[in-house]
Amino acid sequence: MRILLLAGRRLLASVPTLLIILVGLFLLLQLAPGDTVDALMAQMGGGDPAQMEKLRSFYGLDAPVAVQLGRYLLRLIRFDLGFSAIYGQPVATVIAERLPVTLLLMVSALCLSFAGGTALGVLAARRVNRWPDTLISTLGLIFYATPSFWLGLMGVVVFAVKLGWLPANGFEQIGAGYTGVQRAGDIALHFVLPTATLTLIFLAIYLRVMRAAMLEVMTLDFIRTARAKGVGETGVVIRHALRNALLPAVTLVGLQAGTLLGGSVVVESVFALPGLGRLAYESVVQRDLNMLLGIVFVSALLVITVNFCVDVLYAKLDPRIATGR
Amino acid sequence: MTAVLELRGLSVALPPGADRPFALQDVSLSLQRGRTLCVVGESGSGKSMTAGAVMRLLPDGVSVSAGQVLLDGTDLLTLPEPAMRKIRGARIAMIFQEPMTALNPLRPIGDQIAEVFRTHTDLSRAAIARRTLALLEEVRLPDPAAALAAFPHELSGGQRQRAMIAMALALEPETLIADEPTTALDVTTQAQILHLIRDLQARRGTAVLFITHDFGVVAEIAHDIAVMQGGTVVEQGPADAILNHPQHPYTKALIAAVPPLSHIPPPRPISPEAALTITGLSKEFGKPTRFRRAKRLVRALDDVSVTLPRGGTLGIVGESGSGKSTLARCVVRLLDPDGGSIRLGTTDLAALAPRQLRTERSRIQMVFQDPYASLNPRRRVGELVAQGPMVQGVARAEAFDRARELFGLVGLDPGAMNRFPHEFSGGQRQRIGLARALALRPEVLVADEAVSALDVSVQAQILRLLADLRERLGLSTLFITHDLRVAAQICDWIAVMHRGRVVEEGTVAAVFGAPQHEYTRALLASVPGRGWAPPGI
Amino acid sequence: MSLLKRFGRSPPAVIGLLLMLVVLAAALLASTLYPDDPLRLAGRPLQWPGANPRFPFGTDPSGRDIAAQILHGARVSLLIGSVATVVSLGVGILIGAFAGYFGGWVDDVLMRITEAFQTLPAFLLLLVLVAVFGSDIATVTLAIGLVSWPATARLTRAEFLTLREREFVQACRTLGMGHGQIVFREILPNALPPIIVYAGVVMASSILLESALAFLNLSDPNIASWGNMIGAGKGVLRSQWYVSAIPGVAILITVLAVSLVGQGLNDALNPRLRGRS
After folding, report:
1. What are B232's strand-pairing partners?
2. What is the reported pLDDT for B536?
């Protein structure tokens, strides 16, 4: 219970942060050359100034900045993210449509990369400086250095083009009419490459952190105590070192949440997945600033949620947090 | 008497590139059943390495090169690792110096003690729980049932060490190796832990190998003593023989360096004038601010009033949490007191605004405790000493001249001013810190545990230096320490602090000879080896 | 043992340094070997590497020399990486130093701002900045620097929080030293080593960020950037996959080199952990 209260307080403390983000971005977007109406006009192939004036007042874009900001914040509280001129729908609706794909991608990549990275990091630390460690660390470094979009493209070349095992892009086979389990299977197949791409990059990060953390923890005093009690090497690693080494890795999950979301922008573009990331990219290109702000808001909420879960998990792992020391 | 543990000609080699080829050379020790063997030495003597060698828990690159370790006749060094693991914790147990880091912070105490049973026995969970509880009762932990589920950070230092002792004695080992187990504890807690170990030894007949650098502790509990220097045993024998009739010159020098508690030097004349007058000083921690909620409120200083006579040394003694360090930091305005005054001459330091404070700072300077952390590792030592005057506006050339003069004064070669701190030993660094403090020609010197981190022989040198400077420069010194022996040797006037208050003050002879307050009496009674005086005094 | 010697003892660090030199050489020799604009039409499009001796890496869909673009791209990547890193370090160190040293409300305010930047996914912020301020190379570089400073700030703050309590800093205060002198001349030199090592990470991620932007056609199209090249090869992925593959390998090698050098520096500065990395 104490843990929830503690994490809840941290959550409350992120409200000012959220506010800073939104206000900052709103003001930043005011500096953009051209607004939604300009983009609309560009799409329609030009229009006369009178029409633009009318559209501007319709969208409320002629009011002073402070007023616009105030209105925007008030609407946000009601989760009304405004209207997208490009899509002709409320921003919230469009985002809600695209959110599940991104969530699926992010969650799977996060779980797989954390589990894989942790396991491999422990293994590398146990066999430090021998060939398993050298192999794992080298592969890890190479994947860390690889641009995600290039990895995705190469994955497409190898597995979709040359071997034909996996689909090259898209969310599911359009027009095939799958339902139920078959549909789920088809979607899963389409997700293999994008998830693998994202997973490999972040797995490399967790691998390095976990390995360094394990090596650090193994030098601490209580490991010596455990050995002096006659505990075997496996017991020392699993029952003493691992839990302590997990702490920095878990913290990293929270810090990397934003980067994971950013990574999905690129991966979704490579694999043409209809997710939030791709939506962000399209909004930039189409100058749909309302949409962009909405996506930013939702992303910030996502990151805050992940951090909340991480805080709770961390407090469960480390009893020193709950007692306020 | 049969020897439970015997070391014969043990040599331990260090990896190439270390400062000497051997950590231990031809070490032979004998530990009898029911008796305590104290292994004494300064840092670098190899005493901790001995413990590691016996348990076969040496660091990477360090290995045994010759000799035998016989436990009841079996040579431990020839055993395969699984057999050795069976012995660790069951027949030989070990307790360490820092109980906070020696226990896994993420697992409850009860679980860590139970691990000993789980590793070596087949007992059921219920049986293990019963025996763990019994162990915690035996080491006299307050509220043993609660301690079972507590995490290490929820217990005090002394309680943690008791838990470690419980863990070590769980399977009734024949031998207990204690590696400086009380060094990190307060004097009163130390006395309790030593008493506990002696008590358990009497009841169970455990042989104890007690490693320490503190001769007071040795005088308190040793049956036999082995003195180590540079990896070899220079002298060993029964306690009485070594303590009162040492033969080897190194042993004699070590013992001579221990300040005696029972023979206090004759009082010097104390000036009636006050160099520093502290009145009603208060400091609280943990007050809630706008952004932070209220934590536990700690009254570090509660209406403290003491006077430092001109040209004399006022000792502030107390244990951790007594407020003595807070007092030192308030006096030099590293912390801002909440109330009270600090009068240096006619100026009240506590009331000064930051800008006025800058110039007044040169009148009162501080020497710090940790010789390794108190000097900026990236600056040459000459510059470190000259920095103070330069900040106060003195020209660079003149400041360096002053630094040269001070180097000579504190017994260092002025030609070494161009070197970096890591090229000097701990004692030399404290001299540099002293020179830095004296560079501003202060009226008052605050020594915050200035000799606590030094080996006993180096400590003696620094204390002599301080006494010498006191005569030559007419310095008034505020000497903060937890070590009553040191206080007895160098101080004229003593104030005993406990939980933020001054409980007793007076001349050294009065406070140590005839203590009035019960805390002072308890404190004096806890000093290990207080009855023993080094021979030749 | 001196820093250089310790660095030289680790094979990965030396490999990284060698790779770094290769990339540097490519950047420096670009104008000598390929003096013309790398983005101009050079020959028949979509020739395979090695098919034509004039084009060792082949040509892209627009008929541009891939080898020329690779070499000039090295210049771009290193330049962007370095400038962005300098910006990121500069901002991050300043904010982290003041937050860590002064504590109190200064720390709270600065950390709120840092948290705001960190809660926002870096790439999204980059997209927004590019949307608002445009895609020319200077803007992109500045934007990347502005997006990367929070981690440096956190690291600097952590170092300052620890060092502030060290006795040598307290000694400086008792000597009457002013805050500015303490922060910049006493604490900062001691805090720099881990920050310098982290600069490697920042540089690596800056290069990756720029290439990702370029791949999405949001970076400067008039520059021979490796990311641009990968994007150009997207359309012919099925058949002429080398157009995208080659620049990707170039990025991989550069980022690998930067990371290895950074790691080598870290190990050289922490001799205690040598043999463990």
Report:
1. B229
2. 65
* Rounded distance between C-alpha atoms, residue C227 and residue C139, angstroms: 17
Question: Which of B359, B378, B391 lies closest to C189 in CB terms?
Answer: B378
Per DSSP, what are the bridge partners of residue C192? none
- The token duo for B386 is 């000259």
pLDDT tens string A66-76: 777 787 788 87
What Å distances lie between residue B288 and A9, A11, B353, CA to CA?
Answer: 16, 21, 24
The 10 Å Cβ neighbour count of residue C38 is 22
Residues in chain B: 537
Q: Which tens digits make up the pLDDT trace of B347-383? A: 888 888 888 888 889 999 999 999 989 999 989 999 9
Contact between B36 and B226 (Cβ < 8 Å)? no
Distance CA B381, CA B374 (A): 12
Quote the CA–CA distance of A297 and A279 in Å, as a whole number: 14
CA distance C120 to C107: 20
Chain B contact probe: residue of A223, A229, A237 with most B CBs at under 10 A: A229
| Joined tokens for residue B152 | 């290490």
Residue B189 DSSP label: H
Please provide the average confidence, as pLDDT, over all residues in chain B. Answer: 90
- Among A79-88, A169-178, B166-175, the range of highest mean pLDDT: B166-175
Q: Tell me, what's the ipTM?
A: 0.84
- A72-87 burial, b at 16+ Cβ within 10 Å, e below that, comes to beeebeeeebbbbbbb
Residue-wise pLDDT tens digits, A166-183: 777 777 777 777 777 888
3-state secondary structure B436-502: HHHCCCCCEEEEECCCCCCCHHHHHHHHHHHHHHHHHHCCEEEEEECCHHHHHHHCCEEEEEECCEE
For B179-195, write each residue's pLDDT tens digit: 999 988 889 999 999 99
Q: What are phi and psi of B7, to 5 degrees?
A: -105, 125
Q: What are phi and psi of A315, to 5 degrees?
A: -65, -30
* Residue range B291-319: mean pLDDT, rounded: 84
Distance from CA of B11 to the nearest CA of C (A): 25
Chain A contact set for B90 (CB, 8 A): 230
Tell me, letter by letter, the H, E, C secondary structure of C41-58.
Answer: CCCCCCCCCCCCCCCCCC
Percent of chain B scored above 90 by pLDDT? 67
pLDDT band at C277 (very low <50, low <70, confident <90, very high): very low
Residue A90, both tokens: 């409320």
Comparing CA positions, the residue from B57, B159, B177, B170 lying closest to residue B116 is: B170
Residues A132-159 have a mean pLDDT of 89
CA C249 to centroid of chain Cα atoms: 17
Residue A37 — pLDDT band, cuts 50, 70, 90? low
Mean pLDDT across chain A: 84
Which chain B positions have a beta carbon within 8 Å of C108's beta carbon?
291
More confident residue, A201 or B270: A201
Residue C219 distance to chain B (closest CA, Å): 42
Q: Is C204 on the interface with A (CB under 8 A)?
A: yes
